[in-house]
Amino acid sequence: MTLLEEERNVSAKLKALAQLALRTQDALMTECGHKDQLVTPPVFGDEVCPAPRDVVLSVHPKYSEKILQGQKTVELRRRFPMPAQSGITLYIYSTSPVQAMVGMAGIKEVQKLPVQQIWTEFKKSALIKYKDFRKYFQRLESGFVLILYDIRPFPQPIQLSRLREEFGFHPPQSFLYIKNDLRKALKNELPI
Q1: pTM for the whole thing?
Q2: CA 30 to chain centre
Q3: Minimal CA–CA distance to 97: which of 26, 141, 157?
Q4: Core-most of 87, 101, 125, 139, by most CB within 10 Å?
């Protein structure tokens, strides 16, 4: 076989393998509601499209109270995972001196915006003084706005000592993805 024939043979095999790979990918991959997310089908009973990952946010008591009273309908963050899916649940951990999980809310939407635009559009629903806002977003060009809905306080705050003992919970500096066992326990705190 000549060198030219060998090159044609290799080229034909590569084309055949590429077509096989594309057919295999189409057969094995499933789209999960996000254009860039493809997953393989379940092997051992896993969900094909995992549920959105719920989060715990640490919120200062003066703001967590306003959220639970329905006065504060957005939460501002210096950072937040993007792209965040709508419909995830936010669990509200009220920081010191309260130190307890106090409620939950749905996140309708997460927007990443320039800091000045955040102030212009959300100052009334964020319930924050301008000097505190500027200090919080100091040295940042953009930040995140979490638009909240279905805000529900827990009947009784769940103290940090109990959360640590029963679930190994450590309060996040900003946010964390909630562990499945804690998420199930917190969802059961509210009467349906």
Answers
A1: 0.71
A2: 21
A3: 157
A4: 101
